[in-house]
Amino acid sequence: MDWRTIQNGVDCGVFTMRYMETYKGKSPWNLGFVNEDKKTIQDSQLRFLRYRYLNKIVLSDYNLIRKQVYDKAKEFAKTASTEDMLNDLDNKIRDRLDQFFKLDNLKKKTTS
Question: Of 91, 90, 64, 86, which is closest to residue 73 (Cα–Cα)?
């Protein structure tokens, strides 16, 4: 896999979703990712896919709270620019990752 990452340990879910989206039963196949040495391009690709998958999940007919989430997003969009919205989402993702890894480290310390 030419696009395999060494430094990115947080986007495994995005890579998995992309695998499921693009696999057609034959190997090898092209996932469309550039190599990690082109980090800014790969980061841009991952960011786009994160937004795309988030949109599909949140707006899915199976999401029982879709309307509430949509209404809150619509309200937020009235007061924020597109750049603010994207930055807010990036910050929330970063905060969740920080929180997850802190909890994960705490669990490891308590079980050791």
Answer: 86
Please say if the pLDDT value at position 76 is more than 60: yes
- Rounded distance, CA 31 to CA 14, Å? 11
Q: CA-to-CA distance for 5 and 41, rounded, in angstroms?
A: 13
**Which residues, other chains included, contact 91 with Cβ-Cβ below 8 Å and sequence gap of 6+?**
none
Q: pTM value?
A: 0.62
3-state helix/strand/coil string of 36-81: CCCHHHHHHHHHHHHHHHHHHHHCCCCCCCHHHHHHHHHHHHHHCC
